[in-house]
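Supplementary notes for students who missed Thursday's class. We covered one full example, reproduced here. Read the sequence, then the structure, then the short commentary at the end.
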Amino acid sequence: MKALNSILMSGADVLPLIEGGKGVSITTGVSSGAWAAVGGIGTFSGVNADSFDERGSAIPQIYKGRTRNDRHEELIRYAIDGGVTQARIAHEMRGNAGALHINVLWEMGGAERVLSGILEKCRNIVHGITCGAGMPYRLGEIATKYGLYYYPIISSGRAFRALWKRAYHKFTELLGGVVYEDPWLAGGHNGLSNSEDPRKPEDPYPRVVELRKVMNEAGLQKTPIIMAGGVWWLSEWEHFLDNPEVGPIAFQFGTRPLLTKESPISAKWKKRLAELKNGDVLLQRFSPTGFYSSAVRNDYIRELEARSDRQIAFSPEPVGEHTDALNIGLRKKDVYVTPADKARAAEWVAAGFTEAMKTPDSTLIFVTPAKAEEIRADQTACMGCLSACNFSNWSQNEHGTTGRKADPRSFCIQKTLQNIAHDGDIENELMFSGHNAYRFALDPWYKNGFIPSVKQLVERITTGW
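Structure (token representation):
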């Protein structure tokens, strides 16, 4: 493999290897500090990270507010405290090596307030901000205020062009790089557009070349692209190195750092990752953000799939083929469905799925009474963790609502991510993962249950494997 040369990023001479930021309590000060300590860029999550009590135990994020707005304010306080805590841990661990980035999601609730609250206390120990999950137009402005480099996460040259024309051309000096995240292979939320087919992955090379063309047109020939999503062995990406069509390049690893000694995920989660097979990670659209996302197809995902499969269209009045009355709800109010769908509904009810719940799309889903109760309780307990939530219909706009019905086909993302991050049930919680996670089981380096340290992993990656 070609030599892996250092690169100037975020004001430091670093290995072109970046730890990808992963949401709630998954990339921590420990994992990111260890990555930076060996000369790369460590990234800790600014998304509702953990803070600790005097005994070193994670402080449970329990919400006591009576209203969604009250709970939203609690969430922001938790997020700022946790982000500051993790930044300081990472800073202590890295020594004077590498660099540190904070990762935030633009569509998380209170994103600007959380980011600003953390940076007010940590601007001198953080070097850069990465941000995706949406179109973070104000990222350059915020980064410039704190004198930090910024790294938008996009999935196409078209998306970057929109960001550049609207905002980033005003803040060129601190644009440290552009993260191209493959929308078909990355874990977590994915940037697929409505014009792209989730079932037809595209080769990242021409998409990265197109991004470079857009960047060159903007005079950003020396600004690095960070390749993210699907990166496993660097030897498979050798054609990106020293390639004038690609330009300066670095590589971001999201999934591989999960299986390290410093990774905070539970032992049973690590074991499950090491056993995954090709196809065990599903690209789906159940997330309350409305984005596609990639997660292990465990019982949690299968229940969401089954919930949506038990779905029929209805009309409040008889119209067209919707001629048969169906009694639903506590008041047994009639809605109208087709004869075939009424027969399907009768089968689901007989199987125990007796609760019909309306969706925003004039459909009904059928669930058990226990699941219906859980869904309603989670919707009621919403703490505004997203800027807009399909599941609960929360929005941080002036109205406090998306203006649509709450969608029972989705789920409370804050609840499940907190649960799994704190040693929850890996079958019955959302387990985000990149699509190449099955390669843990195929890579002989991990045989016999071997789990490397971050230092060992980075050293391994630099060899090309």
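Commentary. The longest strand covers residues 99-105. Residues 299-421 form one domain. If anything here is unclear, bring it to office hours.
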